[in-house]
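Troubleshooting: if your tokenizer reports a length mismatch, compare against these two reference records.
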Amino acid sequence: MNYQLQREERLEALGWGLLLALVTSLPYLLGYMASPAEKYFLGFVLNPGDQNTYFMWMSQVASGETLLRNLYTSTPHEGVILNLVFLAAGWAGKLLGSLDIAYQLLRLAAVVLLAWSVWLFVATFTASRERRRWLFLTVVFGAGIGWVWNLLRLWNGDYGGLVTDTELLARPLDLWVPEGYVFYSMLVMPHFSLAIALLLLTVRYAAIGLADNRLGMTAIAGLLCFALSFVHPYDVLIALGLAGGVATLYSLRQRSINPGVWRHIGLLLLIGSGPVLYNYWILNNNPGMQAWLVQNRSVSPPPVSYLAGYGLLLFGAVLYAIRNRHELGNNLEPVQWLYAWLLILPLALYAPIDFQRRLVIGAVAPLAVLAMLQLLDWLGERRFTARRASTTTLSVVLLLVSLSSTFHWLNSFRKTADHAGELFVENGMVEALQAIASDPGRHGTVLA
């Protein structure tokens, strides 16, 4: 199959990336431009508590540190965190004289890179440019049926507000877990966008390398996986787990061990697993990171949250896998990586670890690709020769799976227009914290 992109297709992918960067920037522009004189817009549209963690790291980098510390604990410890995203943002912030500008530039770059990566990812599974476009749009905008829950909430007069973690666990996943979705990540979390991009690229090059027996492509996948470890370490477990899953399914189906197949898996593990071991070591040996691990437990919600959070995409993906079950493990084509993702994901999300929910990152991609392939094949089988009828059907389905993403975008305008909300603080507080930060003799912990 032709995995390459023609020049026109590369330009289209870049165009989508720039358009998405613009669209996701509009709520931020509202926050900055419409902020009253006595208020300071934090520069986020979701969860400032988490976002300020990233500024904590960027501030450390801007002050000359490379290995970062967890400042949410008073336990003394050495810096051990190596995060490429916030290293780059911190250096840029120091150069530009503004961490705010650096963070927004990081977000824009992450959106464009993720859009480009999604197009490359979907190009791995079909040679048709038209199909690639439908797959791309579904991966980018696709989500579950959380929008139904929101309509019911609005109907009952609940227009939003701060909620507890327990309340979040009862909601559909697409309403509160950005890393599980492409557009939601583009809108709110640049490091999630970069992590999903690296994960999708890792899967693409690993899949091509294994299918075509090209160790060079597998080595590229390993290097991408290596970089991913220093952006969002959890995600490497998904990439390496998928590789092992594909090889295991193939070996079981063939009832034999193919050394050539496992050579690719071994190369990917060799290159990509080193940082995983490093992160495991620091989590268990550095006092600051031990405190961070306790603070960042991310257990999975009930299964119904995932079922509602992916809705039609999950249904279509499962249906496609069932209809093509005779292909499962029968070859080494790239689609086997999507099957493996579908099978491994539920096990990962309820594994006996403290960061279960983190492993949902990028999960919309395999589900959206399989679901849209199912719909495209169904339309072909029904001989929808009228192009208008086929396009209308695809557009309606795309609209239905995109409503939660639309909600997040519209809701971000509401939040950036709410000057009494959590996205704004008094200028006095900002000035006081800046004064404390500029004091060379400062020590201790400030809670604000």
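Reference record two:
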Amino acid sequence: MILITGGSGSGKSEYGEYRVMEEQMPLRFYVACMEVYGEEGRRKVERHRALRAGKGFVTLERPRGLSGLSLKGEGKKAVILECVSNLAANAMFEKEGIQPDTEELAEGLFDDILYLDSQADFLAVITNEVGADGEDYTPETMEYIRLMGRLSCLLAERASEVVEVVYGIPVVLKGEKGK
């Protein structure tokens, strides 16, 4: 598993797709976790679909419940999980007015991602930098930032490689590409 992080619009998804294509595996899956709300969300989804067009990806819409996902097909499988911040927000805010235990939720999401990883020969996990701006947020948003921090730490520890994409430039933070 590799973990790819960076700011909004930094090129994380493009880099993840590049890495999957580079693996040259016959089966390519794009696990999309975004719940689409409004026109802006629809435009973002269409943009990502256009970028993947012709690359042989099977798109699986999965805003929650990765533990129930089964990757079908014979042969080596390369997977992009796009993206952890959406997956975490969907789980955290699933039940209005109920705040789950952040630590427990982070562990559960991590286990779900490990389950996906167990089915893949190559997994690129995309996440976002959140909370780095130093702003004050509502208590719910601060819990989300804590959730993302904990989950990102778990994923980075497990990943063989951690890459931050800065202005379209991949910067290896852990591991060495290709090793």
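Descriptive notes for reference record two:
- DSSP finds five helices and seven strands in the chain.
- The CA atoms of residues 161 and 176 lie 7 Å apart.
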